[in-house]
Amino acid sequence: MSEVGEVLLEAEDLRKRYGRIQALDGLSITLRAGEIFGLIGPNGAGKTTTLRILATVVPPDGGAFRVCGVSPRDDRLFVRRRIGFMPDRFGFYKNLRVIEYLHFFAAAYGADGAERGGRVEAILELVGLTDRRFSLISGLSRGMLQRLDLARALVHDPEVLLLDEPASGLDPLGRIELRELLRELARMGKAILVSSHILSELEEVCHRIGILDQGILRYEGRLENLRRQTAGGHRFLIQVTGNPVNAEEILLASSEVVSVVRDEGRLVVTLRGEEGIPPRIAAALGSAGIGIVEVRRDAPSLEEIYVRLLGARGADPKDE
Fold it and tell me: Of 20, 41, 72, 217, which is most buried by a Cβ count within 10 Å?
């Protein structure tokens, strides 16, 4: 991961209610240049509401946020020029060609003719649509439309990107290309807030993860810290010779072992320390005729962490 820089987005105590439903309840986040922040949560958690508020599409009922140090209450146009918003659903002018569509939005943001042409060509290359520049939007596939929607969000060169389910509808190759594109945008210094129900996508690219549930940001931080927090220690996969049941008993007798789970002939061991199997435990196993073939650090996936934290409510993290 690249280093992150100055704070580009700050949100404090954001609140939003729809009738009896508290969609957001005191959400606070900070996003820095070069950082990718992944937002996950079950249906109705408030992810889309968060992004819409930060995009100035809907106003919060309480709290405040600043983009590049400026509140939309003071200068909404300044804030909107510095945000690129890719919603989960966006209407296209399907009778236009790709290049006409992007020129239209670049002009809407005030780019003049000469500047607009160069910017549109650069964005087409960045999102991989150069060879489709003259294609009618009506003839594009779902994956191509996703790329075009991202290009529209980028055409005015915003500092902050708000992406709601950007991988939706992409095939496996498209998702790989999207991950690389997000990394490249972060290297360019963009601050990126992305929501997704494809947890493996966020796991591979995000500097930080936020888990939103019932409008409350329950957990926020670096993924490795979240793993330690939920596992209660550091997890290792151990392959042993001899009886794995006996090995499990010996391991559990040690105060340094938090838990042991047998998994297809291997032992998944959670330790309080992070250096590996302590020599005294290895010696106890050896005395019982049990040898250690391999020790490998193992980490719970983001999906495992998500289900462990939210339980049944986290079964489907997609937010409609």
Answer: 41
Residue type present at position 245: V
Residues 258 and 162 in one domain: no
* Residue 310 resides in a domain: no
Backbone angles phi, psi at 83, to 5 degrees: -120, 135
Residue 67's nearest CA partner among 27, 10, 28 is 10
Question: Are 222 and 236 members of one domain?
Answer: no
- pTM equals 0.78
Burial of 136: CB neighbours in 10 Å, binned 0-12, 13-18, 19+: middle
Let me know if residue 158 belongs to a domain: yes
What angle separates helix 172-187 from helix 113-127, to the nearest 10 degrees? 130
Rounded distance between C-alpha atoms, residue 281 and residue 292, angstroms:
11
Total number of domains in the chain: 2
The stretches of the chain forming alpha helices (DSSP H) are 47-54, 72-81, 98-108, 113-127, 142-154, 172-187, 199-205, 223-231, 244-252, 279-287, 302-310
Residue 296, domain extent: 229-302
In a domain, 79, yes or no: yes
Phi, psi of 61 (to 5 degrees): -80, -20
* Beta-carbon contacts of residue 41 (< 8 Å; ≥ 6 apart): 47, 211, 212, 213, 310, 314, 317, 319
Amino acid, res. 178? L
